[in-house]
Structure formats: structure tokens, C-alpha cells
Design goal:
Elements (H helix, E strand, L loop, with lengths): L2 E2 L3 E5 L5 E4 L20 H14 L2 H6 E2 L1 E3 L15 E3 L6 H7 L3 H4 L12 E6 L5 E5 L12 E2 L3 E4 L2 E5 L1
């Protein structure tokens, strides 16, 4: 549990649950150089459609709170975070990771199915509009705050607010 108030708790998976491209379609030569944000990402769609319906019962889904998700601009390069969204499941952004996981060691995650590939995506954009921040297996940010291309595969660690 990351945070708690009188009615809800903010939680994150301990482990990486899946490996996906943030947006595999951006590797299409016609789309290269385009932009992607959390709002339009394949990861957002997968979490809030496929994953939630496959992994949670209707009762469990009713306990997951819809959250206003704000994605800040890249802290170093100013790349736009895009529009705010309302989601039940999402991934952390840079500021949240820095708040809740203050050290490289605390930021590390495990991928039980593939422990050697333990990096995971954040929703914060990278240096370019087709890049996204990523936490490496050693808990450091990939390429500082520049990030990696959105069509690369990385881990997913969902966060959510649940009613208590």
C-alpha cells in the first residue's frame, strides 16, 4: 500500500505483471515521429479493458475507484503529458515514483517470469513525443529522464485506488 485515507487505499503491484509495448503501432513507418500520451496508449487501453475484465470479478471491479489521472510533462525536457484521463487502473508517473520510492533500491521491481528483464514503464513522456520514461532493473531511470521509444517492450506495474 502506497497511501491510505478514510475510505480508500492506493496500491501498486509488487511485481511486474506483464510485458507490453507502450504503443506497438508507433513502430509503423507511417507513424514514426508521431506523438503518444497516456491517454492514447495501448497500455491504458489494455489495463482498463482486457486486464481488468480478465483478472477481476465484478465484485472486485466495483471496489476499484475511477480516478482522475493527471500526467505531468516530462520534468527535464518539458514534453507534454497530454490530457487528463479517468481510469480505474493506470501506471505511475515520474513524480509519484519519486514520492513513494525515494531510492534506486526501492524502485526495483521483479518480473517473476523473466527476472533478468525487470524494467517497467511510467506514464510520463520521455524526451520526444514518441518516448516514455522507464525504470530500469537497477532502479534508475532509463537514459536519465529521456526514456525509451514507445514501441519497445517493458514491464507493467498497475496502480489503483480501492475502496476500504
Amino acid at each position: 500500500m502506497l497511501a491510505k485515507n478514510d475510505t480508500s487505499a492506493y496500491v501498486i503491484t509488487k511485481d511486474i505483471i506483464e510485458f507490453l509495448s507502450y504503443d506497438p503501432y508507433m513502430n509503423d513507418p507511417e507513424k514514426m515521429g508521431g506523438s503518444i500520451t497516456w491517454e492514447t496508449s495501448a497500455v491504458r487501453k489494455w489495463l482498463n479493458e482486457d486486464f481488468i475484465n480478465t483478472c477481476f470479478s465484478e465484485e472486485e471491479q466495483s471496489m476499484i475507484l475511477e480516478t482522475m489521472v493527471v500526467t505531468a510533462d516530462n520534468p527535464k525536457y518539458g514534453t507534454s503529458g497530454g490530457n487528463d484521463t479517468k481510469d480505474k487502473l493506470f501506471i505511475m508517473e515520474y513524480d509519484e515514483v519519486m514520492k513513494y520510492f525515494e531510492t534506486d533500491e526501492a524502485r526495483k521491481a521483479v518480473a517473476p517470469a523473466n527476472p533478468e528483464h525487470s524494467s517497467y514503464f511510467l506514464r510520463t513522456p520521455g524526451r520526444e513525443a514518441n518516448m516514455v520514461l522507464n525504470v530500469a532493473a537497477d532502479g534508475k531511470f532509463v537514459k536519465d529522464e529521456a526514456g525509451q521509444n514507445v514501441w519497445y517492450t517493458s514491464g507493467i506495474r498497475p496502480v489503483l485506488w480501492i475502496a476500504i
